[in-house]
Design brief:
Shape: globular
Structural class: mainly alpha
Strand order of the largest sheet: 1-2
Largest sheet: 2 strands, antiparallel
Number of helices: 12
Order of helices and strands: HHHHHEEHEEHHHHHH
């Protein structure tokens, strides 16, 4: 268990400040210019970054108008004012333009801290970045209207649906990896780099997720392939079956 009491910023305070501005982690990292993988691990409560990072992050939020509550019992004054929610403390300073107040969407919730088993910091950061990138793509896909064809749904709609399911499956694999599990066993490096005849459904899935495995491992070519990848034109293409 990590002791955050001596730090200039705690994970709860960090989440509270970010929630106050209504920012996802990617936006907070972009605005502050700080590494997103450190922000994600720190907020998850399973990592203590260097003091320079913590001081820079706290200074950034304060410069944007957020006031931290540093009482011995974190959040005591805000709690008495009815401003404490599961994710942390909400300040009284005006929100930035377009930002949503956390209190506006606060509801009953529980915060659970889970310890990430993956020890390689670079691999962890790449996996978390992939997860967030997939979520952004998924959100866009889910907003796309359904199109009809001659025999029910159009091929484009079927392909987008399959792509959405593919992204969900890929994130499931990445989350499992973060917590020390390889679904279906750890894939062989050769199987990811070289196409081969599949003998199980697991082989098909690994082939479909090959670039995600390689990007998490730090392969620059796989990263470029993912950037250049265009939306599938057919159901078979989305599922990697053609």
């Amino acid at each position: 268990m990590f002791d955050f009491s001596s730090l200039c910023l705690s994970p709860d305070q960090c989440r509270a400040a970010r929630s106050y501005f209504g920012w996802p982690q990617a936006r907070a990292a972009e605005e502050s210019g700080l590494p997103i993988h450190k922000l994600k691990r720190f907020e998850a409560g399973n990592y203590i970054p260097d003091s320079e990072f913590l001081e820079a992050l706290r200074t950034f939020y304060e410069s944007r108008g957020f006031t931290f509550d540093d009482t011995p019992a974190p959040g005591a004054s805000a709690k008495s004012a009815g401003q404490v929610f599961p994710a942390g403390v909400v300040g009284d300073a005006p929100a930035a333009d377009g930002a949503k107040r956390y209190r506006e969407r606060a509801g009953a919730a529980r915060v659970h801290h889970m310890r990430i088993a993956l020890q390689d910091e670079g691999e962890m950061g790449r996996a978390l970045d992939l997860i967030e990138d997939n979520e952004e793509k998924l959100a866009e896909l889910l907003r796309t209207p359904i199109e009809s064809g001659f025999f029910g749904l159009s091929e484009g709609t079927k392909a987008r649906h399959a792509e959405a399911v593919r992204l969900l499956a890929e994130n499931g694999m990445l989350f499992a990896r973060l917590f020390g599990r390889e679904l279906g066993g750890k894939p062989a490096v050769k199987a990811l780099h070289e196409p081969q005849e599949a003998t199980t459904t697991g082989d098909l899935l690994r082939a479909l997720q090959a670039d995600a495995h390689l990007v998490a491992a730090g392969d620059p070519d796989a990263k470029e392939r993912r950037k250049a990848r265009k939306p599938a034109a057919s159901l078979a293409e989305a599922l990697g079956l053609n």
